[in-house]
Design goal:
Largest sheet: 5 strands, antiparallel
Low-confidence stretches: 1-6, 108-143
Number of strands: 13
CATH class of the largest domain: Alpha Beta
Structural class: alpha+beta
CATH topology of the largest domain: Dna Topoisomerase Vi A Subunit, Chain: A, domain 2
Radius of gyration: 23 Å
Helix content: 25-40%
Strand order of the largest sheet: 1-2-3-4-5
Number of domains: 3
Distance between the termini: 47 Å
Strand content: 5-15%
Length: 353
């Protein structure tokens, strides 16, 4: 039996491979651990895939068993993805190779009567680590994975022609479609009310934005009592129904999101801040389940870059994630022109709608 035939006929449980083999085992097998600096749960160093030199561009999350390059190649994924990229072989063959290396109870004698399989790397050294599942993520009682209950009412008589809305670049069609308007009474009195809907399109709350600079001692945004924005991803109900070939863009703010939607990027969502919550992570994973790549276009400031890096580490185990630094053009996505967004996405291999 040829090596290729044996490989084609062999069974491989991808889920089991990913659950039983840790990223540290794979990195040690390739002799790469000495090139990476560890801080708690994470490792960083030059990217071994495109042979980069930036000491922070390649990131590894041990607990989530994934990696991501924030440099030239922009690659990311799980242990199978890493071996596939490192060896230049298919995802399936990479999983079979991992079984051969680390799962002797699963590795069939697929190459009986043939020469041992040679990889593109020069004899990776055996791992000194025992075969163990990757460490589980510790339970955090403060993790917000619940849902906001449906709202039992909707704000009426919102003023859709308030000058603040046009000043932020919103068209009449967008304002009407999303039901945005100035609120003259109630808990959001004096604010522009922005409806928030869950992934099923059900109204769960409003976010109030003071039109312009707020009075001293008052924040720009106001939330109704009991509403938790960390449980929602703005525009997720529409993004999941966008064409699956459209890139999934993730931004921080509502107005960033609406601006990109108006530019034609309908699969854009906002996490209502720079930090991705556990609930938002779940929602974005589900929106990207069709293998749609996720592009993070956060603000070009320290908080935005930090938030994008952390979000990428959370999402990379199940999605292809790219961080797009918009700083060469604008400090916020809301200010980008369509040609600039297209240029940024093209640089990262995306097809624009």
């Amino acid at each position: 039996m040829s090596t290729s035939t044996a490989s084609q006929n062999a069974f491989v449980d991808f889920k089991e491979v990913k659950s039983r083999i840790g990223i540290l085992q794979v990195l040690e097998r390739y002799g790469l651990l000495s090139n990476l600096k560890r801080a708690a749960d994470r490792l960083s160093g030059p990217c071994p895939l495109h042979k980069g030199t930036n000491p922070t561009q390649f990131r590894v999350s041990v607990s989530r068993n994934c990696f991501n390059c924030f440099g030239t190649c922009g690659r990311g994924g799980n242990v199978i993805d890493f071996v596939s990229l490192r060896e230049g072989i298919s995802f399936r063959d990479a999983a079979l190779l991992l079984q051969d290396w680390f799962m002797p109870d699963k590795a069939a004698n697929r190459f009986a009567g043939t020469a041992p399989r040679q990889t593109t790397e020069a004899s990776p050294r055996p791992s000194s680590q025992p075969l163990q599942p990757p460490p589980a993520v510790a339970d955090d009682p403060d993790e917000d994975t619940g849902e906001n209950p449906p709202l039992s009412f909707a704000l009426k008589a919102l003023k859709s022609d308030h000058p603040y809305l046009s000043a932020r670049g919103l068209t009449e069609a967008t304002i009407a479609s999303y039901g945005i308007g100035y609120c003259a009474k109630g808990c959001l009195r004096g604010h522009v009310a922005i409806p928030i809907r869950n992934r099923d399109g059900v109204l769960t709350g409003y976010i109030g934005r003071w039109p312009g600079d707020p009075p001293q001692g008052q924040g720009k945004y106001k939330l109704p009592k009991g509403f938790r924005k960390s449980r929602e991803v703005f525009n997720i109900d529409r993004a999941v129904h966008a064409d699956s070939s459209d890139p999934l863009l993730v931004v921080e703010g509502v107005f960033d999101c609406l601006h990109l939607v108006q530019l034609g990027f309908s699969a854009t969502v906002a996490i209502l801040g720079s930090s991705l919550s556990p609930r938002q992570e779940i929602l974005i994973r589900e929106a990207a389940r069709t293998k749609r790549p996720v592009y993070l276009l956060f603000d070009a400031d320290e908080a935005g870059r930090k938030g994008a890096s952390e979000a990428a580490m959370l999402l990379c185990s199940s999605s292809i994630v790219r961080i797009i630094d918009i700083g060469a053009y604008q400090p916020q996505p809301e200010l980008l022109e369509r040609s600039q967004v297209e240029a940024l996405l093209t640089q990262h291999g995306a097809t624009t709608p």
